[in-house]
Amino acid sequence: MANVTLKNIKKSFGATHVIHGIDAEIKDGEFIVIVGPSGCGKSTLLRMVAGLETITSGDIFIGDERANEKEPMDRDIAMVFQNYALYPHMSVRQNMGYGLKIAKLPKSEIDAKVQDAAKLLQIEPLLERKPRQLSGGQRQRVAMGRAIVREPSVFLFDEPLSNLDAKLRVQMRLEIRELQEKLGITTLYVTHDQVEAMTMADRMIVMNGGIAEQIGTPLDVYEKPQTLFAAQFIGSPAMNIFDAHIEGGQVKIKDLPIGPAQSRDGPVKLGIRPEHLVKTSDAALNASIQMSEPLGANTLLHGKLTRFDNIAITASLPGVHLLETKSFHIGFAVEPANIHLFDPETGRRLPV
Amino acid sequence: MEQRSGMVEKRGMGLWLTHGFMITGVLIIFFPIWLAFVASTVTQPEIVSPPMPLLPGSHFWDNYKTALVSGVNVPVATMLMNSLIMAIGIAVGKIIISLLSAFAIVYFRFPGRTIFFWMIFLTLMLPVEVRILPTFEVVAGFGMLNSYSGLIFPLIASATATFLFRQFFLTIPDELAEAARVDGAQPMRFFIDIVLPMSRTNIAALFVILFIYGWNQYLWPLLITTDPEMNTIVMGIKQMFPSGDDVAEWPVIMATSILAMIPPVIVVVSMQKLFVRGLVDSEK
User: Fold this and answer.
1) Of A79, A86, A89, the CB nearest to B197
2) A269, A243 in Cβ contact below 8 A?
3) ipTM reported for the complex, 2 dp
């Protein structure tokens, strides 16, 4: 059990700066998801916490101790790797007990701990098998078992579900979350999948280009994205962004008023989530729809705003909407409470 | 239907043909060995009087007993033992050294790492014969002539094996090394617990190749062993030929040749399964 504190963490490989200074306070027992696109530095950040990468500058505290120079094994962490990294020549039992064997625990104690972890993960029947005789989901469980038996203060997960099929991913997502709650171990979980981030995190760190765009609870990030990047990255389908401007307390796209705004006059980026667009008959945002993707419960409509230089727009409407004719037009409106405004220069959120 | 029976007939013909060629090939290769075997079972006068016999005689036990117990200069049993020590020493030594150097080159970042690798790699191009004179000087200077260490040590470093192990280690995922680090394994622990067991098929394959390499050494033992007691069998066969007008004891020499073939055959046959696995698949 431990807090993890990151203080102005930076990393460069030679002249390439990968991480530009990240601060985060992670509370004991918290489930933190680090989410971002490929190459944003999220895995590097995790590996620095693990001690597999050196820290160029800044400090990492695990518990109350500075951990910058500690070897991975002295940090009281356990890590689950993307490809599981199970030792191919060892049985599941040996794989799970290897760390304890190195720590020179008595054999009876190792056996007991492995047995407990196996029971928790329901992999008892697999204990004598070799990794190659296991399915993807089972390997994933064994990799978690190997982390659990060591009873670490911090769990580190590096995209652990990316090699599983969609259905298993949903199931493992729930299991990991459930397990973490049961054990109450501080967890850092790296993923590029925003659904995992939304569903699993107590708080998430949205990373882009080596900086933390936003740190907050999933709903916080969804409802009040602090930057343009966070707004577009979290939420599926992605938020619609329009070039707009504020004029006399009103946000307008060209001359069409969308809602009230408090910021001073000037250009802004206007963000509207696809699910916040509603169908209306008074042709406010009039779109010509090119494509319809019925998902059953709702339908994704992709189209262009005909009045505004054919800007692309995506809407998610409840129910089924099929394209009846080639040129299918639909009018959209949005509640003023559901609009997001961003500074076009800095990408920072502006008050609505 | 006709079409199909035609095809079966054709395939039957092809089968016979390929088998015919194969059997002919095997016979051609096997014939000299057969002759050596026949010669090792007859008496000296039977060999020298033409035509040469093509069927085994009745002196099998006599000839082999003579060869093993007394030989010509030295009992063949002694030479077999010398060869065995040398071949195993070379094979095991080469494997240990190249495993360790490949491990260093792949897993450690030290100054001059690539230079060392290329230096090792360059020596691949220098066969024993090229460096045989300086090597002889060194061995003689250390007083290792006529000794097992003199037979083994100059041949114990292997660039080929280092290179092969390096290539294999590079295919072991980095995550495995990192997992071991998180588990608390020091580098040598990782080497012994993870890398060695994973390389066991490669080790077996190399052992077979290197054992035969060591067993078949001819020039080097010929140079440094002047004492017949230290002769290895491959060079010892040559030493059995008489100089001058003495009569060559063909049955004994041939028995020795056949005996010299047996240990490599045993090694290959007994390790064949591992050997093929080591060359074909990599278990990851």
Assistant:
1) A89
2) yes
3) 0.83
